[in-house]
Amino acid sequence: MDKALEKFGNDIAIAFSGAEDVALIEYAKLTGRPFRVFSLDTGRLNPETYRFFDEVEKHYGIRIEYMFPDAVEVQALVRSKGLFSFYEDGHQECCRVRKVRPLRRALKGLRAWITGQRKDQSPGTRSEVPVVQVDPVFEGLDGGDGSLLKWNPVANVDGKDIWNFLRAMNVPVNSLHAQGFVSIGCEPCTRPVLPGQHEREGRWWWEDAKAKECGLHKGNLKEDGAAQVNGNGATTESDIFNSQSLVTLSRTGIENLAKLESRKESWIVVLYAPWCPFCQAMEASYVELAEKLAGSGVKVAKFRADGEQKEYSKNELQLGSFPTVLFFPKHSAKPIKFASEKRDVDSLMAFVNALR
């Protein structure tokens, strides 16, 4: 970290929000070199978090560079969808307005940024976080791919060691930690974790437990749905839901399945688009479901329903939005649509068990 501060000077900054980031500020102070700290104020943080920010500023004699969301964008979102739309359609849109776009503005003025990501924070999304990387999502001062360096100096540090360091150095910490909050974000989207739960399970608890990222570190998510460009310059997407336990249905295959009035086995099918973040988020749960149902008399399948297949899927397969999950009962012609937004493996299994 000392070398990073020396190399980039004022063009590098520490992203600050939680306990790991206090450790980074303490490390930066110990180097004796000047450093910058910025944070995202979403307007939805806990009162304790705002007091914590003030304590950190006074303790280190610094001014945190706060980044705020665009007021017009926030107003449009709230007027059109209400204050708590994320409970119904996922947190990505709200996070994009309140966090991702402000971060993008902050990083455009930097050549590198320092984060407090640890591999043990989230086994589902951060287990492979490198110490140093070219940022796969955001652009830096020079613009374009590869223009921003991302430094994760505590990637390989255990969370317990972070807390031992904080206690030893007697630095400020968020008072919410003493109330059972481990990973702290916005007030409506954060709650204390229960004994035995992983620290990220207190974030966006109504969504898939294996996709706990808000967009700031989107590069941690599997790249199966990332857009690519083929030799003709056309945009393509790598496929998702890849597993030997899953059946890939063609247009003919799903047409034949839908026509059957009596099937030898029941089927559950996801209608998806590989570029859809909600489809990407449920991939691990759906693959796990397929593995659990192997040999059970229920076939698990996928059908790519975007592009040329979208109109057919909307007219014939009840596609409203991606993903749409359908259950084709063994002795019934009409498929049954999974209505819940909870796409974790337990919810999907309960749906199957109730119908087969």
From TrEMBL:
PROSITE patterns: THIOREDOXIN_2 (PS51352)
Superkingdom to which the source organism belongs: Eukaryota
Residue ranges occupied by any Thioredoxin domain in the UniProt entry: 235-356
Entry cofactors: [4Fe-4S] cluster
NCBIfam families: APS_reduc, PRK02090.1
Keywords: Iron, Iron-sulfur, Metal-binding, Oxidoreductase
Annotated protein name in UniProt: Thioredoxin domain-containing protein
Keyword Iron: yes
Any GO BP: sulfate assimilation, phosphoadenylyl sulfate reduction by phosphoadenylyl-sulfate reductase (thioredoxin)
Pfam families per UniProt: PAPS_reduct (PF01507), Thioredoxin (PF00085)
Keyword Oxidoreductase appears in the UniProt entry: yes
GO molecular function, one term: iron-sulfur cluster binding
